[in-house]
Amino acid sequence: MEFVLSGVAACGACVFTNPLEVVKTRMQLQGELKSRGSYQVYYRNVFHAFYTIGKVEGLVGLQKGLVPGLWYQFFMNGVRLGSYAIIESSGYIHTNGRVSAVKTTVAGAVAGVVGAVMGSPIYLVKTHLQSQSTSSIAVGHQYKHQGMTHALVAIYRQHGILGLWRGSSAAVPRVSVGSATQLSTFSSAKELVFPANSWLVGLSAGMISSVVVVLAMTPFDVVSTRLYNQPVDPLGKGQLYKGFTDCFSKTLKKEGMIGLYKGLGASYFRLGPHTILSLFFWDELRKLYQQFR
């Protein structure tokens, strides 16, 4: 039940934040491996990107990748938050009755690795679909998928089962860092704010966690997006990057530290509300379940 509640909570947050995920993905791919001023800027900032996509592609464009996004949230966060909830319920994260920062970090990272591996194929497809756009505002490599199922089948036929896990080398550090940061700060913050039974506990702790998560996770998120979306040769090997370290170093060399924090505003507007909403829904659903079980 912990896995189901966690997945449902994450899906609830995804419905509201998916448009910002589309914006974030496009901004992270814009000017890929190009120095500043040497490429056309279609998306000046998060608000301009939101307006541009809405104007050119309509509301449908802002919800691209919603179906795989929901499946990804259900499986990845269902496994991640569900695993953490079980670890938390077992008493592992506490030392002498208080939350241990080290133990919550380790538990969050482990839960994140499991979730990242499970959800990687769907995240791959989600990234492809969210980057797809009309030629007038296209950034990054453009795949021609017709939907989630078509994409999964096409990738499997071309590159086999391993092709579906392409980019997971970036997904694991991305989610493990994000998960460790998110869950450790969330658990610690819950001890510091408001009465224990107030609904404001989960909401406020989620707000605190969201800021820390975005700052820690954005460079890994940029690398992950680019590895998932890069073109590949007939053997399934990336044509731009060999792996996580290569992508990280090339981005830093060509675009500087700013390149690793591309789409930071969009990342917060997406990851911030998603962190707050998913952790809040998760906390409240678990309380309801405990009351009625």
TrEMBL record:
Membrane topology qualifier: Multi-pass membrane protein
Protein species of origin: Amphilophus citrinellus (Midas cichlid)
PANTHER family documented for this protein: RE38146P, SOLUTE CARRIER FAMILY 25 MEMBER 35
Gene Ontology annotations for the cellular component aspect, listed alphabetically: mitochondrial inner membrane
Any Pfam family matching the protein: Mito_carr
Record keywords, A-Z: Membrane, Mitochondrion, Mitochondrion inner membrane, Repeat, Transmembrane, Transmembrane helix, Transport
Source lineage: Eukaryota, Metazoa, Chordata, Craniata, Vertebrata
Family: Belongs to the mitochondrial carrier (TC 2.A.29) family.
InterPro entries recorded: MCP_dom_sf, MCP_transmembrane, Mito_Carrier_Antiporter
Repeat (Solcar) residue spans along the chain: 1-90, 99-192, 197-288
PROSITE patterns per the UniProt record, alphabetical: SOLCAR (PS50920)
Name of the protein described by the UniProt record: Solute carrier family 25 member 35
Intracellular or extracellular location(s): Mitochondrion inner membrane
